[in-house]
Amino acid sequence: MFRFPVLILSLALVLAGLAGCAGRPQPDNVLVVGLPDEPLTLDPRFALDAASTRLNQVLYAGLLKLDASGRPEPDLAQDWRVEGGRIYTFRLRPGLTFHDGRDLTARDVVFTYASILDPSLNSPKRLVLQVIDKVEALDRLTVRFSLREVSAPFESELTLGVVPAGAGPDLAQRPVGAGPFSLVEWRPGQRLDLAAHRDYFMGRPAGDGIVFKVVPDDTTRVLELLQGNLDFVLNGAPPDLLGRLAREKSLRIIESPSANYAYLAFNLAHPDLGRLEVRRAIARAVDRRAMIRYLLDGRAEPATGLLPPGHWAYTGQVADYAYDPEAAARDLDRAGLKPDEKGVRLKLLYKATLQDLSRRKAEVLQDQLARVGIKLEIRSFEWATFFTDVRQGNFQLCSLEWVGLAEPDIYYHVFHSQSRPPQGANRGGYANPELDRLLIKARQCLDREERAGLYARVQQIVARDLPYLSLWHPRHVLVLRRGWTGFELTPQADLAGLWRIRRED
Amino acid sequence: MSRYLLRRLAWLVPTCLGVVSLIFLLRPLIPGDPVDFILGESAQAADREALRRAFHLDEPLARQYLLFLEGLARGDLGVSIHSRRPVARLILERYPATLKLTLASILIALVLALPLGVLSAVRRESALDHTAMAGALLGAAMPNFWLGPLLILLFAVQLGWLPVSGAGSPAHLVLPALTLGTSLAAILTRMVRSSLLEVIGQEYMTTARAKGLSEGVVICKHGLRNALIPVITLLGLQFGALLAGSIITETIFAWPGLGRLTVTAIQARDFPLLQGCLLTISLSYVLINLLTDLAYAAADPRIRLNRGGR
Amino acid sequence: MSRLNLKLRLGLAVLAALMASNLLAPALSPFPPLEQRLEEGLNPPSLSHPLGQDKFGRDVLSRLLHGARVSLLIGLSTALVSLLIGALLGAAAAYLGGWADELLTRVIDVLLAFPGILLALALMAILGPSLNNVILALCAVGWVGYARLARGQVLSLREREFVLAARAAGAGLGRVVVVHLLPNLLAPLLVEATFGVGSAIVAEAGLSFLGFGVQPPTPSWGAMLNQGRQFLLVAPHLTTFPGLAILVVVLGFNFLGDGLRDRLDPRLTRSRVN
Q1: Which of A10, A327, A479, C165 has the maximal Cβ count within 10 Å?
Q2: Residue C97 scores a pLDDT above 70
Q3: What is the C-alpha end-to-end distance of chain C, expressed in Å?
Q4: pLDDT tens for residues C178-213?
Q5: Does B126 lie in the same domain as B30?
Q6: In what order do the strands lie in the sheet with A476-481?
Q7: What's the rounded Cα separation, in Å, for the pair A283 and A286?
Q8: Which of B44, B73, B102 is the last residue of a domain?
Q9: Same domain for B35 and B161?
């Protein structure tokens, strides 16, 4: 009944026939990008997750885009003017087209923003655009925004992708934008195939298309790079494997400073953490450079505040607490936290996520803080539980990262006393009236130099008060296959830059 | 026979409903709000309320349960909170892939377990027996997330015979099925061995030998046919374990299956999607078990006669 | 008890080694398992660190020895607790028959149709990740197998002479179950439990992959294997040694179970008459 030899032989034959089906190479001028997650929605009015955002950078274009220092510059709009601080008039470039050939006009811009502001659509971007009172098309290529109040951060919000007028829920699966590439096919869970948009207003893309391949597992992604199936992996290779990848002759590693910020958050409602002396002691007990060297393969800069050094509003003239465990111990002594018979001065709870890096940070922190007598208990949770806890103020210490910081108004979102969840992200409950005043003033100040001065003061206050312990600004790390050229890695890691990537000849 | 069938089919619905109800029961205990994932961290209270209303999340759990049952009766599994697409569509996109993987794993498990089990039984207590069992157990004792990358390293990166991950050609199926199938192989081998041992000493076997048939034919034709019956039943039972075990394998191999979708649904607290996935998995499991039990009954006349009454 | 078969001997040897390392871990460990030396991270095996060092420079051998405790705890607790719950419920249901039996069968059906690992995930989301919750989650999924087994056995034993005799003599439910039924169940259940230890240890590794399990910095073999996974290409010793440990222990327990069953086989069908 079962002839084993035949069965095994046939299996062997099948396998032999399948051999050679490995790693089918892509047609020459098509880049294969590795994605860690599948995008959820390709409608920029709804996309919040990282994967969707990345795809939308390539599929859509917005009125404006951000330059390397975070300043807005023209994209679909060729210029704009501001009147009375509240009227923004944008002139669109002529001859703009969507992927399906339709013209992109002021009507589409108005539709995009009006639909977001429509409460029935439940768009997550509605909150930040609430400042818009009215948006209208003055003529075919001119759009006017009338704001309720003066808002300096407003321009940064206009990088949002413009969708065709009348676009419905279908857009999430079948996107139509004006970006350099258009969606050809989406195989759920597997890959997205994009083709070059010939009429892209900056010029026809240098490449023929892009394939986004979904590879959730870190190690598998690296193995795909090694086998030659992926050409482009941005921030998707574990730091410890970068050395191995660097030794591969067919790959090269490109780094750039980023606009990301890693930090340790304190819950200021906690009796001990609410005291500045204790937070200062913890700041001195943490060896950030060691963490950068050993956990991130050295690919990060120690941070002094939310804004990275390249940012237009950045200042380095702020308090910085160097690694000094003896001073930390003295600080704790002075604060009245003396060691008990086991050497423990203080017990704290640290909540981490399930991500590898998060847990490793936790373990190193645990070890470093133990040396000054602070006993850290680590509890790691999956993201939903973790985030719910943190938002409800149900934590003592935790470490997170802000990604893609461009608008300094983030300080309002994070540190203003009115910004406690769910209004904002002030999870630790920091409240400083002087800071509040400065933040509101900076919001309404349209003069960039004056704003920079205000935010310099803000950065100084925050660095002094330590509601967050600044850890580092990780660098962007791109693993790119040799033979591809033309992509510029910016701090925002904007993938729209892929329109220039092409095979070297 | 038909009465048996009807009775089993009748229990299908309550069993599957039981599975989904379990999630409803657990829901109030699980922390995390799906609305957070859609609207992000800071959202106006009004927006959150509106979204909760849109998905009936603001209503009492009992009412949501009734709504779900109502929808089910219409064949409507609801809409995924996370991606706002119909749940049924999402599941249909991923289910065939999981089915393929599961069936391939069973095939590989059988290919491994049958020869090893027979060897083990025939040469009982010998070094061969121990080695065969150890070999079979190897797959079960190695967690999938270790075995998988090792297989990739060897067959894909070093030898270049197979692709690393993803789906799209039969070659893509080999490594994930191998990873998943080896854990099943261990249990199957043991089952083949023990049921063959039980059967080997029996009368019809000695009769066959007396008739002059070679040992090989005796074992293969007569022994195995009867030993396979409990194996089939075991496969049915293990199907559920395979569906669940595919979660890890699907992640490692970027296999676009239902397992990963279910885990994502849990992580995002996407309850409609989770309910749909669970329903699909449990329905599959119950149906497969029904089929294997029917095959069992069909293969073994004694059972049929028992049911039909003497 | 003339000669213990080979499988049984191998299995017992592994068990003994495990127990020994459990007791002697602190004495045998060359380094404290939690001591970090970041600058020595990912070092391969050397004279002072025979099994190498992990990402934080901690000694793998010491962590492996201490991790044995955790893995053993998880394996044994899960198996024994599942066995107890399953055996009691299964035996009682089968013995009582009627609605109790129907109810249990339905519950078992539902739980079997529910993908085990997802139930474990849901439980951990509710209860939070910790060693005890891992055991709880694994038990919640694991008792079902023992219940089925116990039920099947009791169904066949129920009508046997010695049971009927005991009931005729006026023994109550409890006495019949505990004194007469359970001893006959014990053998097959125990065999099943030895397999259960192995699968619990592997399941813990699987849960570690999904992020649940012991909290850092406590070492467990499953957690070590999972943590080492990322370094497969650059520091294979981090997966090889915990993996081998799991392999040997699981094989050992499986052999123990097989050997036990082979040994007890003739006795399984014989009933114990008081």
Answers
A1: A479
A2: yes
A3: 22
A4: 676 666 778 788 888 988 998 899 988 888 888 777
A5: no
A6: A181-187, A191-196, A209-214, A30-35, A232-234, A476-481, A251-256
A7: 6
A8: B73
A9: no
Q: Which domain holds residue B35?
A: 2-73
Domain shared by B116 and B264, yes or no: yes
Helical packing angle, C237-268 and B127-141, nearest 10°: 130
Contact in structure between A44 and A157 (CB atoms under 8 Å): no
CA separation for the pair B253, C162 (Å, rounded): 56
Q: Residue B71 pairs with which residues in a beta bridge? A: none
In a domain, B120, yes or no: yes
pLDDT at A392: 85
| Chain A contact partners (≥3 CB pairs within 8 A) | B, C
B173 vs A477: CA distance, rounded Å:
32
Q: Do B198 and B112 fall into the same domain?
A: yes
User: The CATH number of the domain where B227 resides is what?
Assistant: 1.10.3720.10
Residues B149, A220: Cα–Cα separation, whole Å = 7
Contact C254, B137 (CB under 8 A): yes
Residues B262 and B132 in one domain: yes
Chain A residues with CB inside 8 Å of B109's CB? none
| Residue B134 maps to a domain | yes
How far is residue A292 from each of residues A281, A288, A474, B254, measured CA to CA in Å? Answer: 20, 6, 9, 30
Quick check: is B310 in a domain? no
B59 and B206 in a single domain? The answer is: no
DSSP-derived pairing of the beta strands A468-474 and A261-266: antiparallel
Contact indicator for A389, A379 with CB cutoff of 8 Å: no
Chain C residues within an 8 Å CB radius of B241: 116
pLDDT tens, residue by residue, C28-76: 888 888 888 888 889 999 988 999 999 999 999 999 999 998 888 999 9
Tokens of B72: 């089910």
Rg of chain B on CA atoms, in Å: 24
Domains held by chain B: number = 2
Closest CA to A404 of A488, A487, A307: A307
Place of tokens 């108005």: A110
Q: In this structure, is residue B282 part of a structural domain? A: yes
Indicate the residue among B14, B38, B73 that finishes a domain: B73
What is the pLDDT, as a whole number, of residue C54? 92
Q: How far is CA C87 from the centre of its chain?
A: 16
Task: Locate the DSSP E strands across chain C.
Answer: none
Q: Which two tokens stand for residue A445?
A: 């100040």
Residues of chain A with pLDDT under 50: 1-2, 16-24
Question: What string of DSSP letters covers B8-29?
Answer: HHHHHHHHHHHHHHHHHHHGGG
Does the beta-carbon distance from B240 to C5 stay under 8 Å? no
The model's pTM is 0.89
| The pLDDT value given to residue B147 | 92
Residue A12, pLDDT score: 53
Spell out the residues 6+ positions from residue B60 whose beta carbon is closer than 8 angstroms to its own: none
Listed by number, the residues of chain A in 27-46 with a beta carbon closer than 8 Å to a beta carbon of chain B are: 40-41, 46
Question: Using a CB-CB distance cutoff of 8 angstroms, which residues of chain A are in contact with residue C38?
Answer: 290, 293-294, 364
Neighbours of chain C (3+ CB pairs under 8 A): A, B
Closest-CA residue in chain A for B257? A189
Judge contact between B139 and B188, C-beta under 8 A.
Answer: no
CA distance B270 to A289: 40
Continuous segment of H or E residues that includes residue C157: helix C131-157
CB C201 within 8 A of CB C222: yes
B268 shares a domain with B183: yes
3-state secondary structure of B89: helix
d(CA A154, CA A454): 17
Judgement on whether residues B65 and B107 belong to the same structural domain of the protein: no
Query: Cβ separation of B140 and C202 shorter than 8 Å?
Result: yes
Supply φ then ψ for residue A313, to 5 degrees. -100, 10
Residues in chain B: 310
